[in-house]
Amino acid sequence: MSNLWYGILGFCLVAYFVLGGLDQGVAMLLPALRGDGERRAALNAIGPMFLGNEVWAVGAAGVLVAAFPRLDGELYGATYPAVIAIVLGLLALNAGVQLRSRGRRRAGFDALIAASGLALALGWGLLLGVLLHGVPLDAGGHLHGFAPLKDPQVWFTGLANVLLVLVHGAAFLVWRLDAGPARERMRRLVVRLGPAAGGVAVLVLGGWYLKAPAGIRHPVTGTVLALVIALAVVAAGLAAKRLTATRGGGRVFAASAVACALPVLAAASALFPAVLASTMDPGATVTVDDAAAGGETLRLLAIGAAPLIAVLVAVQAACWWLFRATGSRRTSLYW
Question: How do the domains of the chain map onto residue ranges?
């Protein structure tokens, strides 16, 4: 049962990295868009799906707290500066996007939205880096400081996630915006940044492979997935290069979505069955079974909470289908 809920947690995180990642990418790209018209079109493109995309972060947090209370407490204790940055970034991004068109100081809101997107992309990348690094956990279950956040390799992991998210946001705008200068600039960005993001992803996962922290039990698996990430973002760049005025945007977005989903799978598969490695005492490493709640709790959650995942998927799919028109199509329901 613990492995089932670990899979559900992974599904929620993958969904958030793909869907929330495009929100973060578009947010960071606002300064690259010229004038209020282009920026409004970009926000209109994510508007109908925006809150639905962000709800997967809430779902992942709920599964973590309910099904893996030990992992929640110890991971937060080791990384709470990054967690605080993520929470504040989520609040600021939601407020900025929804309040931007309700006032006259749009430049200030644009800066807030871009900074929030950067904080979120970097924060989530840092969390993945900390998981790969391991935490200073002793046999008594006590954490000692924030040593993982001082490791440059953890920050390189955060940088890699920022680059992947930027490519993902640009790919989404290539797919959703009408032909014009803004779409062409986003296309050129994907072409140029895709190979760079792929190279950084390979270097980061290769660095973890060479460093070989004690908690990484399957380094080859993580490295293979890093190569797939690189191939996916390079494929996005190639698809963008061959893009026509009316076709090909969906392939660009699909490739970047794969690249954003795989970091979660790479980290989880490299660690499994551990979820939180100890850098102080290998015997203190927390496995999936150690981190999970009791069997009765997990079974109760399976009855009451698991069906909600299917509802979330159905509502998300319906929302994307209903608002499948390009971002320039105005609607009274969203900004």
Answer: 2-322
